[in-house]
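Chapter summary example.
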Amino acid sequence: MLDAYFAKVASYEADRLRACRRTARAGVAIGAVGALVGLAGAVAVAALTPLKSVVPLVFRVDNATGAVERVYDLRGGPLEATEAEQRYFLWQYVRLRQGYSAAEAPANFEAVALMSAPAVQADYAAEFRGSNPASPQVVLGRDGTATLRWVSTSFLGAKLAQIRFVQHERKGDVALPAKRMVATIGFDVVPGPVSASAINVNPLGLMVTSYRADMEATP
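The structure predicted for these 219 residues follows.
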């Protein structure tokens, strides 16, 4: 009887030992899989690390009013403008510079200035000044308007364009003869710090370096 009992005990202990070994092997396997998953995650994070960068924010404070404005920096690298973008902003420049209404004149003047190199700004300011007899402020007056109809845009070089348009002017209730015009524009895309207000007008950083508008013929 005792021999049979001890045989059963030995068999039971052997079964328990085998079960413990299987559990240990399973635990090792699961642990290894977990370690591999963790390693893969660490490698993925390490691979993404070069893509992370700290972008400094610059703010400008107006000394007179205390107003705070964010300054955007476009100097991250060379800017490539598509032809479609160039066409759009060049036409906006011509439309704002050649068009006129007394109510919109201050905003349009500021927009043209933001898109003009210093020498071009100075020329435009002299043309628009009320002391100039040819200024639209004098020719058309407070009740006058000038609107433009686009005709064509062509590129004469990498940074030189011509835009043809028809300019319709009214002085009060009187429509003046339409003018068929051509504007020749030298331009560039200039990276650098840009204020939040300038971003709203000229996010591309397009800068007009030369400008001339001539009348072709009366249509």
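To summarize the output: The radius of gyration is 36 Å.
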